[in-house]
Amino acid sequence: MRRTEQGYSLLTTLLVVTVFFLLGLTIIAVSLQHARFATVRVDDVQSLHKAKTEVNEAVADLKAELSDPNFFTSHRIFSPNEWDHFLGLDSSNPGKNTMTGRLLERYGVMVKDESDQYQIDKQQVFLRVLRLEKSFDDGHRTRTVVRRVFVTNTPSFLKYALGSNRAVVLNGGVYIEKGDVYAGETGYASNATTYVSRTNELKIETYDSGMPRFSNSSVWYLNGAFQACGQTKSCWKVDETQTRFQMTNQWESSWPAGTTEPPPSFQPSNEDFVDVDFELTVADKLLQAAGFSPSSPEYIAKVEAVQEAADKTEALRQLANNLKDRFNELNGNDPLEIIKQKKDKPLYVNGGINLIGDVDIRTDKGVNQWLIVNGPLNLNGPQNDFINIHGNFIVFGDLTITGNVKLDASVYVTGKTKIYQSRIERADNGKGVVLLSKGKLDLARINEFDNPRGEANLKGYFYTDSSATIYAVGSYLYIDGGLFARGNGDPAPDTDIYGLVVNAFRGRVEGSNGEPSGFVPNPDVALSRLVVRYRPEVLVEQGTGLPFVNRLSLVVDRLEVR
């Protein structure tokens, strides 16, 4: 009996030893597996980081190469074809002496030309859209780091969501959903907001309107100091004349403590700001529309005459009048004549014009033709539908846009521009509007007292050579493009500040008899009454209609991993 019990004990002991032995082997196997997975994961992360670094270094290399202010003459590039040869886009196997070949050799980064996807006329302009990419293995499959780059010789202002060569003041809950902000001088931010009543009384709202909010990828570029105020109603006061808002002494040089919005990323601008000369740009568009080559003596003489004139706007008007023999002159009293007219030459109207229907001023090749208006221009769309406008405009007078308009256009306005009770969409071909106004830009009563809906209602880029004040208190503005006020001439309306002044409330605003009557703050950025989403495609969509300068610059889109 004892032997039997001893046998059972031996078997039990062997079984326990076997179980513990198997458990030990399992633990060792699991540990080895975890170690292997950890090693693979580290290798994957390192591979991803290496690919991102090499793509970013390639972008920096390209940027440094193009930063030479005498780039075109230094490399003897005088035509778009020579430009493509320098980049290496004219060959399926670019050599090491080309930019594409060099980036491939140095960083293993492929450069692909996507310009055709944006319908860029590569025979006429230097604009290019490049995709830089580097592949890596994540342990399961091959993935690719991609960064899209816009190479352009357009002015710097087109690179920013909001900006000014002078001061930029962001009052209240404006939301920069995508893109950067540029202030050539001082930047200001507060959680206050101001507005002007229907009876022209200056009002300072008592509620916390929210501090400006930037997306994680957005940067505020400052060439001067920064000042902020988190004291709501105490940030601003109305001056003794009751005609302008003035800053109080509550502003400090740091982001206000206790606010829910984090401070944006501040950086000095390390690039030269490539400015635009409004009058010379308009002269260039007139002369090229009339068939003058920029290298011809006639072109140079006429541009110099505008540059030396005491009244440059009047000199431009006279230039257009002198060139009208090269245009198809129309009767301004008959807008339908524009639609019926042949588009083989630019169109000229001596007098103001009111467009209330579709207008298509494109050549047989689908290129926007120019309409020169020697007087004011009104684009009046319906409220329940859209009018469609294709064409480029030079307006010697004021521009007014009302109602719903789909615009595929470059527009130059020597006077003031007013956009009210309006919705501006991109045209059916996906192209939008770039609007440059010498005078004041006035955005008023846009979706008044509507609740934010997360839907853009102003699609385009809007520039004024003057200063600008934007009120998004009763109005709801969602700009898919950008807005820039250069800061020339008079200070921004209702202030003593030169540059761009923005007032925005974050939350719901109720109205009564056309006046704000109730404010309900909300920290949700989706409820900001001014949202700006920068759209880099603005640099390529309008082609020859955009203002150009003899400098190249890069606009780099977000890095993606596919």
Quick take:
With 562 residues, the chain is α/β, with parallel strands linked by helices.
| Oligomer status | single chain
Q: Please count the helical segments.
A: 9
Strand content: 25-35%
Distance between the termini: 74 Å
- Average pLDDT reading: 88
Rg, Cα atoms, Å:
30 Å
Structure report:
The chain has 562 residues and is of the alpha/beta class. It is 23% helix and 33% strand. The chain has nine helices and 36 strands. The strands form six sheets. It has a 21-stranded parallel sheet that branches. A five-stranded parallel sheet has the order 13-8-5-32-30, with no helix packed on it. A four-stranded antiparallel sheet has the order 1-2-3-36. Helix 1 (2-66) runs antiparallel to helix 4 (99-107), helix 5 packs antiparallel against helix 6 (297-308) and helix 5 runs parallel beside helix 7 (312-322). The chain is globular. Mean pLDDT is 88; it is low at 37-42.
